Amino acid sequence: MTLSCTFLARGGKNYEKSLAMLLSHIDAFDISEADLTVQKDREVIVSQIQEMYPAGGVPAFNKTEIKSAVLNEFLAQRAPFPYKTAIFMSTPTMAFCVTAFSCYRHMPAPFQVAILNYGIASAGALFSIGAAGAMFLGGLFAKYGSQHEATGIRLRHFGAGTIASAAFTLWNASLLHLPMGVAAGVLPQVSAQPWHGPLIGAGVSTITWFTAACIFKPKTTPAKSLAYVALRNDEHP
């Protein structure tokens, strides 16, 4: 698990690097200097922008419309990858949970409910949260290293992966081992009632799903200005 999280942390570093490069390119963008096949088009474009932005002109367009348009597409959610990608990564987990549920058909009903709850929550939310958390930590460590000119980038990847792996292991245990242990009656120090196991699992899974919703829910993007909508309509009539 630590090795997987280390590779994800490296991916988070690359994500932050790409984002920083994108922002630098946006800051340096000037539509009046864009490459055009027909140079006369430049005069038409600049004149139209001047009409739409009488106060700021081309600089206002460069710093507002272009930047907001790109960032709205690139930063549509808090996670560094969409939820459908997270579900695809969880495919092996789904197969494991189906197999595990089939193997424990002889167990009491509380145990089966607990493992079913774990299968749904882990495949649909927990592993996605773990991957996003590892990438977030990798990007955070990379940002810290670039700001402080730190060395040892591979060590930072491993450190981020270790932290993410430890957090995932604890969360996974609270969603899997704790409810199933109570349901199976092997954790009487927690509860002697088997049905308390599924209840504990339901509580942890609720927190898990809520966290996943916060991470992968698209952000509320600001309303695009009429100028931007007009440009988009001209590009895609």
In a few lines, what is going on in this structure?
With 237 residues, this protein is an all-alpha fold. Helices cover 76% and strands 0% of the residues. The protein has helices spanning 2-28, 40-52, 57-74, 83-89, 91-103, 109-148, 153-175, 177-184, 196-216, 226-235.
Classify the beta-strand content into a percent band: under 5%
Figure out the total of helices: 10
Q: Provide the residue-averaged pLDDT.
A: 79
Specify the helix fraction band: over 70%
**CA radius of gyration:** 25 Å
General shape: elongated
**What is the H-and-E element order?**
HHHHHHHHHH
Helical/strand content category: mainly alpha
Distance between the termini: 49 Å
Secondary structure tally: strands? 0
Biggest sheet statistics? none
Runs in which pLDDT lies below 50 for 5 or more consecutive residues are 221-237
Domain module count: 1
Features:
10 helices; disordered C terminus; mainly alpha; 0% strand; elongated; 237 residues
Q: What is the fold's blueprint, element by element?
A:
Elements lengths: L1 H27 L11 H13 L4 H18 L8 H7 L1 H13 L5 H40 L4 H23 L1 H8 L11 H21 L9 H10 L2
Q: What does this entry look like structurally?
A:
It is a single chain. With 237 residues, the protein is mainly alpha-helical. It has one domain (2-216). 76% of the residues lie in helices and 0% in strands. It has ten helices and no strands. α1 crosses α6, α5 runs antiparallel to α6 (109-148) and α6 runs antiparallel to α8 (177-184). The longest helix is centred in the middle third of the chain and has 40 residues, at 109-148. The radius of gyration is 25 Å and the shape is elongated. The relative contact order is 0.15.
